[in-house]
Amino acid sequence: MRRALAAAAVLLATSCQSLIGPPYQPPPQQPAERPAAPPAQPSQQARAGKAAQPPPPAPPQPVPPPPQPSRQFHLGAAASALVQQASREAASGNPQLAQSTLERALRIEPANPLLWIMLGQAHESEGQYELAGSMGRKAVQLAAGDPRAQASAWRLIGDSLRARGRNEEANEAYSRADMLAAQ
Amino acid sequence: MARRSEMKMRRLIIPGLVLVAAGAAAAAVYVLRLDHLVVRQFEGRRWTLPAQVYAAPLELYDGLALSESDVERELQRLAYRRVDAQGSGGPVRTGTYRRVGSRIDVGLRATRFADEARPAEQLSITVSDGAITSLRDGTGREEPIVRLDPLLIGDIFPIHGEDRIIVTPDEVPPLLPAALKAVEDRNFDTNRGIDILGILRALWVDIRAGQWEQGGSTITQQLVRSYFLSPRRTASRKIREAIMAVSLAEHFSKADLMNAYINEIHLGQDGNRAIHGFGLASEFYFGKPLSELDLDEIATLVAIVRGPSYYDPRRHPDRVLKRRNRVLDEMAEQRVISEDEARIAEAQPLGVKSKTAGAYYPAYLDLVRRTLRRDYREQDLTEAGLKVFTNLDPRVQADAERILDRELARLDRVLAKRPHHPKGAPLEGAVVVTAPQSGDVIAVVGGRDAGFDGFNRALDGRRQIGSLVKPFVYLTAIESGRYNDTSIVMDAPVEVKLSNGQLWRPRNFTRENYGPVPLVRALAESLNDATVNLGLDVGLDAIVRTLQRFGLEEAPPRNPSLLLGAIDLTPLQVAQLYGGLANGGFRTTLRAVRAVVSADGKPLKAFPVEVQPVAKADAIYQVDSMLEQVIERGTARSARAVLPRGLVVAGKTGTASDMRDSWFAGFSGSDLAVVWVGYDDDRVTGLDGATGALTVWSHLMADVSTTSWTAPVPDDLQEITIDYPTGMRAEASCSSDLVTLPVPPGTNPPVKPGCPAMLPLGAAAAGAAPSTGAAGSVGGVASSVGAALQRAGKWLQGLVH
């Protein structure tokens, strides 16, 4: 149990580091969670948060199928602070607390695959392999266009499969992860 | 003679003495028994503490879109009081805030969250251009994220039971016991449980007044009465009460007795719920903790003690104001406060909050109670002092309640003007709102009168869902691999022979048929005949399995009418089913409760986020794209007039049982809402999904400031542009109604007659004007970013994310 917890802590800590990646640049404006009153143009405002990074140049020629634009997911400042807090909580042997802190971050950025991966890793370390695998799959879907995040998600899926004795599928997941990481 | 009488005397005296001795012994036994009883009960007394239920706390962080007035409104919702900005340097008192320019300084209360307790602390919030730009603690240190207190939204008290919030002596403002002594029991500190002089004085007042005015009971006697005795006023009870009071005073300190009194005494009634103790009374009447009450408010509560129903400040404000001022006079007379203090306090209005202004959400609490009953005994919930942390978002809840009531009132007026509209009780409705990614239930409205704890239509109102079932028919078709969004299905009259030998002939809502139509049009326009043809081809069994995968617990009857939604579900069940559509094919467990914590702060139970894949991303993406067209050009297009420009949402109308039930279920990126509108007695409303439920839904989505629905295009799909009415490939030169849809590679619909024969495949059908499709084309983005921003929707979002 102790070893599992320590492993979880290390996993969380390293994953946070590798996923956030120093130096971290928070986008100037975060997607709004929920303002109490609608701003003038809520959806535009919400988009403004996402559009804060300059949009990549449109492909010069419309070639079907549209190439998945490559991008890299980041955590906002608030979610990033919560992830750090969660990794401290996991390291001090309180995985339940770490999970609930990660869920706080998830409420702020529900479509961020990095958070789903971390939450999945937290469940994996607690032996909830199936849930961990589902969260990995959710992350793969959300991380379209970010091979690095997708690779982490596939690794999580691989771990969850291996833990359930499905080694062949696990190896398949790991090799997908390796292929994506090489991109 | 004398001897005889002596004998007689002796014969009388001895039994008399025996009798007296026996009587004395009996009395002693009686007193001892009472003494034993009172001591044991007082010592063993644990107040039963109903579970307290909290809303989700508002997370404040850098960049969160909140204006100064939004922040202020949130603070006021939590009963923080604004104070003068004078001397804006020092700390602000706990429970208050001040505004200094664009900065708001708050004295945050000590509070407990699901995962930790936080001591009282200072917080400075800086806001600029409608968003939070900085959060600093008392030392000026920057904080990335801070939670406001979770709003107390109710208690789970036993039926006909006592509700209270226990306060410890250090949470009691010193003026309260002082005021209680001044008014109820002047000699409390010195008397021995009863106060003979006090009784005589009261008697004298009563005799002079000719009526029962002063009770003359000490605080200890009142405590005994509240603890052990029925409210009957008999002489024997008076004696019992006096004996027990003396016992209590003998065995326990005055401080213990005062503390018990403050937590025990009855101070009001709220339907079945009895308000006990000053801690709860403070929240019940003023919406804030006891420790923050001012002199006038303390005096009001003390005034209520004498008769909570006679002195109900909401029903008899004048009466209470008068008595409150008598309390203040009395306090000044006994030098508890100065004359000046009394005068200032007497000038204050009562300041009791209206009952409806409070956070009282019976329909949501109902869901919380049902969730907890799976894991806890009733007694644990009503007595053990649990703290329950929920996912309720008070802002969304308040919006949903207000909009439902407003729109139903408007619809009632519209319907009243229709000729032959049957008269009867007004329209009813229900709303469920969830955060689809996590499964959090964030609002539940069980009826039009949201503050009324009655029939909960959101949880118990089982109604026929009609066309709400169709997305699952189409999803099953796409999953079969034989259909995509552009596949052609026949919208032609259909006859089905049922197992009972009868013929079923469904008809389109419009009574017209449209021949061969693409799937997208059949779903967007909710064509019944096309759907039945499609569903019969796919098979009922497969559709039932889809519904069950998405969370339908019961097995619906395998009847062809299921294809058109002949199944009764509650709004909450619909929210569960649509969750998987809104969440990329992942089913989440709907959660009202986040965590349960024991009275002493130990975590007891957590309800974590749970997801489970139930459909492939590409199939879901195709269905969601069609549901987007429901709003862009289908049965729900009227919503566009209400929704903010450019907000991408998806959903489905449902009209069932000859217009008895009007439904809309739909989602944005961050919110899923299900709305039902109809009559309780099942009369025909004459409203379809769009004219009824959709108006509530679209106003709600517009008001809660939600984010656009967006999902990355799955790798194994590509976008092509077709002519919406026919489903054939086309371009702007030969079609006035183009739509771009995601389909599996290799999909190659025939070219529309009159279009160039060599149209390129893919989304980039040259010249497809982005303004005609909800999803823009690559060419459109490159050429006209401005127009595309509004129109391109999810695809562009994916691009710039």
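The radius of gyration of chain B is 35 Å.
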